[in-house]
Design brief:
elongated; alpha+beta
Length: 232
């Protein structure tokens, strides 16, 4: 309990209560939607998204390298406003004195044309294409890994849920009924206390096995969510 509180970031004297039972979590969690065989596996997994991002970056590098190897036109334009004057004064058109100054506006524009003759950036393009081949191979490997992990997690999840169903579809009820019968038989004097204790031991062993099956089902479903990239 102390270790759990430390992981949750709560103080040691704060009360902690489980919101749901393990049985309710397992039994209320329905089947998960799985990707279709035609769709790439694990599209929401971080490793798949990272590999896809690296492939897009490689495509962008190829496009940039090809653009830099083609003819390019760059347009430019400037504007400048300059107010110049002198401390001397002069007469204006109506004969009054005013400071000698002038207001000037400069506008310029042009175009720069880059025409590659011998260097068409072939080396940079080849390097970018090689990087893309590696990124594409990495993405394919990540997809195969995701498919294998999803298949393994799905098999484990199915097996764990079938094991839980064995207990919930009659095994626990039958064990409880057997214990009640042996207890009533003991109360009637037709069985010994050792018979009751043995039956109680078998019942508790079954309950422990059921709890272990519930835990395995919960962990298997969590592993399947993680394989699908849907960890809650």
């Amino acid at each position: 309990m102390v270790a759990l509180k430390r992981l949750l970031g709560v103080s040691g004297d704060e009360p902690l209560q489980v919101r749901n039972t393990l049985e309710s979590l397992v039994q209320t969690d329905g089947p998960l939607p799985l990707p279709s065989p035609a769709a790439p596996a694990g599209g929401t997994r971080p490793d798949v998204q990272e590999a896809e991002a690296r492939l897009r970056v490689a495509d962008a590098r190829i496009d940039r390298a090809r653009r830099e190897g083609r003819a390019d036109v760059s347009l430019f334009g400037t504007y400048m406003r300059m107010d110049a004057g002198f401390p001397q004064q002069g007469f204006n058109n109506i004969g009054a004195l005013e400071r000698v100054h002038g207001l000037f506006h400069y506008v310029s524009g042009g175009a720069t044309v880059t025409v590659p003759l011998r260097n068409r950036n072939q080396g940079e393009i080849a390097s970018a294409q090689a990087v893309r081949v590696g990124a594409e191979a990495t993405l394919a490997a990540v997809h195969l890994t995701a498919q294998a992990e999803i298949a393994a997690a799905k098999s484990r999840d199915d097996y764990a849920r079938r094991a839980v169903a064995v207990y919930t579809e009659g095994a626990r009820t039958l064990a409880r009924q057997n214990l009640d019968v042996v207890t009533q038989t003991y109360e009637l004097g037709r069985a010994t206390v050792f018979d009751v204790l043995n039956e109680q031991r078998r019942y508790l062993d079954l309950e422990r096995a059921y709890t272990a099956a519930l835990r395995e089902a919960y962990e298997a479903r969590t592993a399947l969510r993680r394989a699908l990239g849907d960890v809650r």
